[in-house]
User: Fold this.
Amino acid sequence: MTVLAPPPSSAESPPRVDAPPPTPVMPARTPAPAPMRTVALVLAMLSVSILALAVNLVLISQVQNYTSQKALYDELRVDLAGGAAPTGPEGVDGELIEPGTPVALLTAPEIGLPRSVIVEGTAGAQTMAGIGHRRDTVLPCQYGTSVLMARSGAYGAAGAAFKALREGDRFGITMGQGSCTYEVTGIRFAGDQAPPAPRAGQGRITLTTAAGLPFMPTAVYRVDAELVSDGYDRPAVAIPAGALPESEAAMGTDTSALYPLVLLLELMIAVALFVVWLWRRWGRWQAWLIGIPPILAVGLLTAGLVNQWLLPNLL
Assistant:
């Protein structure tokens, strides 16, 4: 007789093991075509240049101005000691003073300008180095009206210190003929009536900068000050009023940097093509490792020229 065992109960059934889910198969990455990689790299370099422009304007420009001021002060100190500092629009050789030449020293520690060198010229390249002197006006400390211009946000922001001056405040200037003191008489904006021209034996200075927030100029800001100490005679006028280019007017831009700017843009494209070649030859990270230094260098140089050419001289 055959005895059949009863079927196992459900409690004794072996546990059910589910099969593991299938591993997804990732599609192979297809490299982008070379033209697309080139366009992407050029756009990346343009982005780096825009970032370099902002960093240059806000941070690096302050360091550049500090370095320029130190070198200009050393030059001016030697010229003052040797009696070679300019006393007019022309040098000892009878030629016009080169723009960017240090001509005077402004001292106003109460407003944060203990020692600020004034340079000849008010174009963007000159106000990047320091306070600029408008070339068709007399030098500071001389009888007549002198006009100075300074940036309000970038490159030392000496113009921001101008805004701290109030009526009755005094500041001093030293130039080739000696030293003098000015006293602030008023503040005016575009459209306000200018004070009457100084009479014989009187002197005035107008400090000019940009109104509005730093790096966001909205108008021209002027501080008028009268000469309250002895002044000095001025030489004959060498540059008539109205003869200066627009780049030296308030809020003017300098187009002289256009040609080198175009050359730098061409160099930027060449660097982009070189990095693309390295990318295809060696790899992505190797290309970036070698390409970042020249990209940053060209970007900073381009940013400096854009600051000089496209942006106002009082920014």
